[in-house]
Amino acid sequence: MTRLGVSSALVDGRVVDGDVEVDDGVVTRIGLPPASGGLRAVPGLVDAQVNGFDGVDLMSATAEEVVHVSRALASRGVTSWLPTLITGPERDVSHALRVLDAAHASAAEGGARLLGVHLEGPFLSPRRLGTHPREHRRDPDPELLARLRGHSDRLGVVAVTLAPELPGALDLVRTLVAEGVVVSLGHSDATAAQAHAGFDAGAVAVTHCFNAMSGLHHREPGLAGAALARPGVTVQVVVDGHHLADDAVRVVFAAAAGRVVLVTDATAASARDDGAYVLAGVALEVRDGAVRNDAGDLAGSALTLDAAVRNAASLGLDPVAVLDAATAAPARMLRRDDVGSLRPGSRADVAVLDDDLVVREVLLGGRSIETAGAR
């Protein structure tokens, strides 16, 4: 049995004073006499949108590079993650799916666990593509999606982002939901009415709220406004200081309390210095931490999830709400009860944070691994 040497723990959305005990890879007790030093144990972070990380682009990654991404994420407190593949040639997406499928078991050995695959596209609005290649965008095509899903037999496509206003989109949402896939609306020019139709069909989230979607206007709230107003809809946000103004982040947390998910939209530039990178064949340049394509548009981020937590907390938001948005909230969105929680009986995937929310220790199944510290 091992005690973590913490003063408190985040348990079911509240801070419980005292140390935490782990035995044989499982959390066994909480609320033990607290250790000095002010450290806090929280559930391992859950990143639900990772296109790449630490020099690796997932669309072209090898199995060894997927393992590297899992380990690099874990060193920053992320103990489970959702690989994301953007719009691209069918052959490239199919190959990436096969690589992820083959690599996921090895990646979880000493690294963060893969929770499935998120397909962000190709069923997106031509008016809100962002950096997604226009030539590979498609209207909803069930046969194409079935072919893609067939390349991930073991890991599985567990989430799909699409635009609800496209022809056939609502039928595809209903089909995916019936098969247990999480549908998120994004890269969309939907009106509020079209957005609500997507939610009525079973979509449960929006992808990087306000970015690449119809915005909030007082007479036409668009997809962003509909998501903020709709109870039960998860609102994903990228808090890197570039995707959203500070007040927009505060509005999201106020309007969607308890249903905000911090994501990184990470690229190969994440955890790296400024410079040149690639996202699914698209050339990127990173300056002052902002990732942009040749047209100057934002194209993913250079963010890490631990930094997103610190960024959000620095805006005066409740740290407990911010940590929920990086742990339990993404687990709820993905319908996973085996991640994002810290309580007796749960797997000991734990991040230990200091008062500045810097990751000081990470446990994967109760085993401590080396951390990267603040970026």
Compact summary:
The chain is of the alpha/beta class and 375 residues long. Helices cover 26% and strands 26% of the residues.
Percent in helix: 25-40%
CATH architecture: Alpha-Beta Barrel
Radius of gyration: 19 Å
**What structural class results from the helix and strand content?**
alpha/beta
Instruction: Return the average pLDDT rounded to an integer.
Output: 97
User: What's the main sheet like?
Assistant: 9 strands, parallel
The best one-word shape is: globular
Proportion of residues in β-strands: 25-35%
In CATH, the homologous superfamily goes by the name Metal-dependent hydrolases
Low-confidence stretches: none
CATH class: Alpha Beta
Count of DSSP E strands? 23
Query: What number of structural domains do the residues give?
Result: 1
Compute the separation of the termini in Å. 32 Å
CATH topology: TIM Barrel
Number of helices: 10
> How would you name the oligomeric state of the polypeptide chains in this document?
single chain
